[in-house]
Write the structure tokens for this entry.
Amino acid sequence: MKAKIIGAGSIGNHHAEACRSMGWDVTVVDTDQAALDRMKSEIYPKRYGAWDESIKLFLSSEQPSGGFDVVYLGTPPHVRMKIAEEILEEEPKVLLLEKPAFPPSLVGLALFAAAMKKHPNVAVLVGFNHIVANNTKKVHQLIEKNNLGKLLALEAGIRSHWENIFKAHPWLKGPEDTYLGYWKKGGGAGGEHSHGLNLWQHFAHELGFGRVAEVQGMFDYVRENGADYDRQCLLNLVTEKGLVGRVVQDVLTQPKKKWVELQFEGGSIEWWNDVTKTTDEVIVNVRGKEQEKIVIEKSRTEEFRKEAEHIGDILSGKIKKSDSPIRFERGAETSIVLEAGHRSHGEKRTIAVDYSSIDA
């Protein structure tokens, strides 16, 4: 398999290592020679022990085009769509857009959705890799096993101080030096931690409650050192079939808390990520039984390898692209709901979510 990764930053390094662990041929592309040099001499060898000489590096102006099985697009959300449309023309089998797929303006969404229809053989995914992780799979297994009845309430949260992000990007002084410091570009708590919203939507979908129909949003916006971001993103949600719940995301909390809590008629299941650096957890409470806590060993690199394995299953035909839980439509829904949340805060009212841009 041949993979092209656009963007040599932190996420590009994660994807490159994951692809190499699959035995794939890897090409990395960036507009900045300094970024390519930093990947080769600093980021990759520091994280993974040594530089992998099989990885090919190219400036964007010199990159190979066409013939790739999968293309990863790791550029910032606000500049992603023009490049994404160009990649569609290359006809890879899989195109993965890093999360969030779009900035809150949703600029380019409708045009890209229309362009996808001209390339029906390209499986477009969005990189919400928690959805294909072992703790998420375990939750689904336990729901089937324990006969907990109807889901009554759903809550998700990604509350994590973003100092860990900047430790992984030592060339950045702070949020003002990257799109992460600008909510309108897809950063801030709403964009960077949109895993929380996506997880909420995933479980709502998989348990039969449909899309988010209405949203009430409240944000804590901050302007400092030239940056303009939301440090807290609070969303109250109602689905098409009446499931009510909430999502909490922030870039403030230490130690971090990343969870999903599902309340059923007969008990509850909790999804936990990064309980320690090497463990996730799933906690099951069935009424009348003792609590069961399941510890799942993992690593940071494994999170991206699971995503690569999922892509491999699509490439091999084991999974249909229309069945992938990280397919484009699901990822785009997350951006659409987040946009409605920002609008709800600004207009101080509940917003009905409009999906016409991807349904047309």
In short: The two ends are 33 Å apart (CA to CA).
